[in-house]
Write a structure and sequence with these properties.
Blueprint: H1 2-26, E1 28-29, E2 32-33, H2 34-40, H3 56-62, H4 78-83, H5 102-115, H6 122-139, H7 155-167, H8 169-186, H9 196-199, H10 202-227, H11 236-256, H12 263-292
Antiparallel strand pairs: 1-2
Helix pairs in contact: 1-7, 1-12, 5-12, 6-12, 7-8, 8-10, 8-11, 8-12, 10-11, 11-12
Length: 302
């Protein structure tokens, strides 16, 4: 039991570090500061007649309808659009506000994930693009269901798994999270409305491709090593979530490679990486914690 609590505590600590460390330690995150992003983020405590994530005073500033949660009728709440850098008065898909960079979008994703404000998340908007990239990965065999190697649910095997998981799969996920944030920081100044800022810059694009080419084999090795850890049947869910996380990172980076040839697919992949680095990391950690501590129904043995 002490081993389970220790691992749960380790995961919980990482949750906090993953969300807050980049902003607190450096003051800014990529090209946008946390404070400046919060200035444009919806304020949950302010009056909001239509519950769209924009306060009534912000509705006036943006000239949106304070009685209509989706002023432009494109299926996204006005607050979601503002937070994700989209114009709440122009219907999707051609509604990006000018000058949005990868770094600013990542900053907004961190702010919305850390605040936990329902209905205001950057991820609500970007999930659509990330899902398209995920569908492409599934269709092309980029995400494969890995059959876990099973041990038993004995106390001895669970104790052994906790030790192996902490220094293996969980550590691989932590390293991958750090790698993804470093990669996104590298291209943080790239304007998503004008990808020439990446593809036409020979130095930056070389760093972009070199970093991807370096990370892909590293990620594949982490996937293989994580899959080789024997897991108790009741904790298969924790193992699978980490493997899915690692595979998504590998898959999105693979898709991002073709951003010069296929800009839409490359941009979807960047959206996927932003989501994975913020809300995706937190979701994975919460799921692992739940499985390990028995807060959810254990995954049955196949």
């Amino acid at each position: 039991m002490m081993g389970v609590l220790a691992l749960a505590a380790l995961v919980a600590i990482w949750q906090v570090i993953s969300i807050f460390a980049p902003s607190r330690s450096q003051g800014t995150l990529l090209t946008g500061s946390i404070s400046s992003s919060l200035e444009t983020a919806p304020i949950p405590s302010a009056p909001d007649a239509d519950n769209d994530g924009l306060s009534d005073s912000q509705e006036s500033m943006w000239r949106t309808d304070p009685q209509k949660p989706d002023t432009d009728g494109d299926g996204f709440l006005d607050g979601e659009e503002v937070l994700s850098g989209h114009n709440p008065l122009v219907a999707a898909p051609n509604d990006l506000l000018p000058g949005q960079s990868v770094g600013q979008l990542l900053t907004q994703a961190f702010v919305s994930t850390a605040s936990g404000s329902a209905g205001m998340s950057y991820t609500t908007w970007a999930d659509a693009a990330a899902q398209k990239a995920l569908n492409t990965l599934m269709e092309n065999g980029g995400i494969v269901k890995i059959q876990p190697l099973l041990s038993t649910d004995s106390n001895a095997d669970k104790s052994a798994y906790i030790q192996a998981f902490a220094v293996g799969p969980l550590q691989y996920a932590k390293l991958t999270s750090d790698d993804l944030l470093s990669f996104l920081k590298l291209i943080g100044s790239v304007d998503v409305t004008n990808l020439d800022t990446l593809t036409a810059d020979p130095v930056l694009f070389s760093q972009f491709t070199t970093t991807i080419n370096r990370l892909l084999p590293v990620l594949q090795k982490r996937i293989d090593n994580a899959a080789a850890v024997h897991v108790p049947p009741s904790w298969v869910g924790a193992q699978q979530r980490v493997l899915d996380y690692l595979q998504l990172a590998h898959g999105y980076l693979t898709l991002a490679q073709v951003i010069r040839e296929d800009r839409s697919q490359g941009l979807m992949a960047l959206d996927g990486l932003i989501i994975l680095s913020t809300a995706g990391t937190l979701d994975m950690l919460q799921s692992v914690t739940s499985v390990i501590t028995g807060q959810v129904t254990p995954t049955p043995s196949p």
